[in-house]
Fold:
Amino acid sequence: LYRHLTKLTESPAAVAPNLLNAPNNTAKNLSACRRPPDKNLAHLLNQPTSSFPFARPTYRGGFWSPRSCWPPLSKTAVLVPYRNRSENLDKFVPYMQTLLQQQNIAYGIFVIEQANTKLFNRAKLLNVGFRVAQQFAKFDCFVLHDADKVPENVGNIYDCVRSPKLMISAMRQEGDATQKYHRGRMYNNFLGGSAAISKQAFERVNGNSNRYYGWGREDDELASRLGLRGMRIFYPRGHVARFVNLKHSSDVITNTMPWPHWSRVRAVMNKDGLNSLNYTDKGIYLHNLFVLIRADL
Structure:
């Protein structure tokens, strides 16, 4: 996928100008979009991605919106922090296009790559993605998504009806012949892997902290920020919200940040986050299936 990129030379808003508009001004004649029936797509993970049955996105950059119903169930930006996971990205993006196009939502997939050699900063990349995605369209829902995790079921809608929410009820390892699942909620207030949050909620907590270089704790701080603003995390149950953890090399480096207790988070959240975000823009690129944002943090 990484070999087929074109650098964006126009305004982001010009890429998918009608993504969130009714198709051909015929909304009066279209029925309202409905939730699709449950359908498990996990079997596709055993097939070559070239055989995935997804339709082509509606617009360049991988943007998609329903054309046979209106309005969509959600207007969602999927934000994927990324570095050195090409084997996951090559499977993640086609699979997600296949799944999301059946959900009757309008969406875009944004891959935010850390373009330097510092320790990986997942939280800051998500802040960058949140800012840049809104230059393309006025999304009202954001799914903060690791590249090595994919949902099994079409019925796990990527919306923010319940925001904030963990998208994962249970998870198994790719290639696990026993199909053994482990619970998605690893501990109280867990918010890692894949989580949906509304634009309003993310802005209300000033986004993520920008301080977390290295793996871990950044999602725990986001959970603490939400709690401090009186927002409870919704945790799904049942088979519909099951995920698969894709295989990858074990090269993560854990940071030494302390546990983000509320007292500590309360002292910094108003000055560390979206309002203090700084980075060097290394370019925005379009693929047929996603938008790549390169940032030097």
In short: The two ends are 23 Å apart (CA to CA). The chain has one domain: 59-296. Residues 59-296 form a domain with the Spore Coat Polysaccharide Biosynthesis Protein SpsA; Chain A fold (CATH 3.90.550.10). Helices lie at 86-100, 122-136, 199-204, 218-228, 262-268.
